[in-house]
Amino acid sequence: MPPARKKVRCRKCKKDYYLVGLGRTSCPNCHIDALVPNGTIAILQLKIQPGGYDDGALCLEAGLGTKAKSGAIYLRCKVTVLARKHKDKNFTIPIGISGNKSDYWANKGRELIRGILNSSQGLSPSDNSRKAVFSRIIDSYSVLDGICFVGVVSIHKSRLGRDENTISRTLSGDDEEYKELLLDKVF
């Protein structure tokens, strides 16, 4: 038996769309308009949305971590565009801390955090001076709450088949786009 379909009118854009099944969905037209275009270079701000999970061994304090049903532990973060054409658009991303199956999840999260720290301080990823090394060391993940950095936003398909924004890479002090964006003083 096919799922029940119900025609609904969006309150925001006044277009009709169909609800399929019992799941709560938003208007697909508004969802597409809310996305930041693929390849957009922007100044971003990261805010951690606490999930209520603490683990002293992983340096998770104040309930900042979130534990998934699979056992993976991550930071649920809201990213907001701070300047230019897409100002105030936001999206959520997970930053992996640890996973049960492999170290891939944790390594991708560690790579993103290092890129965010480099970008926020204008450091080169290849800079291994004493000052640069110590500026990448964090005592707690709460340091990331509210941090601003330059990143490239992309669009990917979620596991449910919807388009979602994500951060494909962060830009550091070496990148020309980083220097141009900061010289424009678009804050």
Please give a structural write-up.
The protein is of the alpha+beta class and 187 residues long. The protein contains four helices and nine strands. It has helices spanning 28-34, 104-121, 130-135, 176-183, and strands at 5-9, 16-20, 40-49, 53-55, 60-67, 73-81, 90-98, 147-157, 163-170. Strands 3, 4, 5, 6, 7, 8 and 9 form a seven-stranded antiparallel sheet that branches. It has a two-stranded antiparallel ribbon with strand order 1-2. Strand 8 and strand 9 form a beta hairpin. The relative contact order is 0.17. The mean pLDDT is 84.
Briefly say what this structure is.
By secondary structure, this protein is α+β, with helices and mostly antiparallel strands. It has helices spanning 28-34, 104-121, 130-135, 176-183, and strands at 5-9, 16-20, 40-49, 53-55, 60-67, 73-81, 90-98, 147-157, 163-170. The protein has four helices and nine strands.
Oligomer: single chain
Distance between the termini: 54 Å
Number of strands: 9
What percentage of the residues does DSSP assign to strands (E)? 35-45%
- Main sheet record: 7 strands, antiparallel
**Helix-strand pattern, N to C?**
EEHEEEEEHHEEH
The radius of gyration over CA amounts to: 19 Å
Structural class: alpha+beta
**Chain-averaged pLDDT:** 84
Percent range of helical residues: 10-25%
Number of helices: 4
Low-pLDDT sequence parts: none
Principal-axis shape equals: globular
